[in-house]
Amino acid sequence: MPLPFRRPLLNRLLRPLAILALAWLALSWLAVIVLRFVPPWTSAMMLERQLGAWIHGEKDFHLQQHWVPWPQVSPYVPLAMVAGEDQKFPYHHGFDFDSIQSAVDAADDGKRLRGASTISQQTAKNLFLWNGRSFVRKGLEAYFTVLIELTWPKQRILEVYMNIAELGNGIYGVGAASDVYFHASPARLDPAQAARLAAVLPNPRRLRADRPSAYVLRRAGWIQQQMNQLGGPAYIEGHAPPRRPH
Questions:
Q1: Of the listed ranges 68-72, 111-115, 163-167, 175-179, the one predicted with least confidence
Q2: What are the CB-based long-range contacts (under 8 Å, 24+) for 34-41?
Q3: Nearest one of 48, 65, 64 to 56, comparing CA atoms
Q4: What span, in angstroms and rounded, lies between the C-alpha atoms of 176 and 171?
Q5: Which residues pair with 64 in a beta bridge?
Q6: Using one digit for the tens of pLDDT, what is the confidence trace for 104-156?
Q7: What pLDDT is stored for residue 22 in this prediction?
């Protein structure tokens, strides 16, 4: 006898859940569409860092970030980020499955698990999500990565990434990093300075572009070499056929 009562109850629960899910999908895609044209005034990672500073009583903490549009940034900056973080960026559709497989194989061999996130994935995470390694966060990261790749051109993904990436403790984006580290506008950064900015990305709260450690100098030198091998700024600007990395 209870069965006839269960079905209406289940239906009453499923209907609002379905409406909520559809509303969330619509709103999330709307946010991605809007941010294709409107500079984000902050990001989830910036908000998380600011909240953490308040909770831990970091009274000296000051978050620095300001938006710099693509034409006002030296072309060496996005090139350095691609060379150091994701050399297949012009070719993939958000996910580098070869790198993912290599990371899985390395972990199976007992080596330290290394990241295989593309710039598109990092942009999705930095803009919309929180730090962590849960399956829920990784699933949402994949979802927003797909939305970004479907909605934004590659140049827009790079433009947003270089404006919200953490490049120092509380320093986000190339605009603030250029001011703090080099006392210059982003448009005036040379290849060596751009490579040093990209070199701190693995651990921006410990590594500094203005007082580079031996590790940062080695990594920056390698990034500069890769920038040259990729063919220079034309690799990401589309002015010449890009050279596919091996």
A1: 111-115
A2: 35/127, 35/160, 36/151, 36/152, 36/156, 39/67, 39/69, 39/163, 40/67, 40/127, 40/160, 40/163, 40/164
A3: 48
A4: 6
A5: 171
A6: 655 555 555 445 789 999 999 999 998 888 899 999 999 999 999 999 999 99
A7: 87
Tokens of 207: 């590594």
Chain center to CA of 199: 15
Q: pLDDT tens-digit profile of 50-81?
A: 999 999 989 889 999 999 999 999 999 999 99
pTM for the model stands at 0.86
Q: What share of the chain is helix, strand, coil (3-state, %, to 5)?
A: 60, 0, 35
Q: Rounded distance, CA 144 to CA 128, Å?
A: 8
Helices marked H in 38-153: 44-55, 76-85, 97-108, 119-128, 135-151
Lookup: tokens for 191: 């290849």
Residue ranges and CATH numbers for the domains of the chain are 40-237 (1.10.3810.10)
State which amino acid sits at residue 151. Answer: T
Distance in Å from the first CA to the final CA of the chain: 67
Rounded distance between C-alpha atoms, residue 204 and residue 85, angstroms: 14
